[in-house]
Design goal:
216 residues, mainly alpha, 3-stranded antiparallel β-sheet, two-stranded antiparallel sheet, 7 helices, rod-shaped
């Protein structure tokens, strides 16, 4: 898949979100989608896109076959739906948990697994952060991806953050684990070596005593 602009990511993320959270109002009109893109809550960064801006982004996404704008979807007002994933239009498939994790990363920027879990309760269920990390690992190793990457841990933070890669590479990626050097060869057992030398000396003394003995 081609790289996307931040505005394209925002539009697709909003369509993914509203498909799950407000299915009765999905697909979205241009006005509803613009409002979703410019929300002051649950968005980072906050954007201020005009309807013209959003329409231009939609036109670009339609050309990339990532959004459908079939006239009206049964109504007079043109509405829009994504073709990004889990649709009959493409091969990209995610589990509910993978889709939810990627969606909040698209809408709210880099986050820790704990933050992702707390912000996806309307999109998917995660029993614990281990399940979040499992979904993130799947996205990082996806055959069509990678879609996310782990960032370097910030000083004083217990959890590392993750970021999406839909706009390209990001800074502060966590370093690959350093290769573990093989252990040095084990040092000779000094005690065993000493015991061998003592035994050899004792045998030599015994032989000398036998030679010096009158009966020898």
């Amino acid at each position: 898949m081609d790289l996307l602009s931040p505005e394209e990511v925002r539009v697709i993320g909003c369509l993914l979100e509203k498909e799950s959270t407000t299915p009765d109002h999905y697909p979205l009109s241009l006005n509803a989608l613009t409002s979703a893109c410019n929300q002051k809550s649950a968005r980072d960064p906050v954007m201020n896109m005009t309807q013209t801006d959003v329409q231009n982004v939609l036109d670009s996404l339609v050309r990339k076959y990532l959004v459908s704008d079939r006239a009206g979807f049964g109504g007079r007002v043109k509405k829009f739906k994504h073709r990004f994933c889990n649709t009959e239009f493409g091969s990209l498939q995610f589990s509910d948990q993978e889709r939810a994790a990627l969606c909040v990363l698209m809408l709210r920027g880099p986050q820790t697994p704990g933050e992702i879990r707390s912000r996806t309760h309307r999109l998917a269920e995660f029993a614990d952060t281990d399940e979040v990390e499992s979904a993130l690992d799947s996205l990082a190793g996806h055959e069509a991806g990678p879609f996310v990457v782990q960032l370097a841990r910030e000083p004083g933070k217990r959890e590392a953050r993750y970021a999406h890669l839909l706009c390209g590479e990001v800074a502060n990626v966590a370093a690959e684990p350093a290769a573990v050097a093989p252990p040095p060869p084990a040092a000779p057992d000094a005690m065993a070596e000493l015991e061998q030398r003592v035994a050899a000396l004792e045998a030599q003394v015994a032989r000398l005593e036998q030679r010096l003995s009158p009966e020898g």
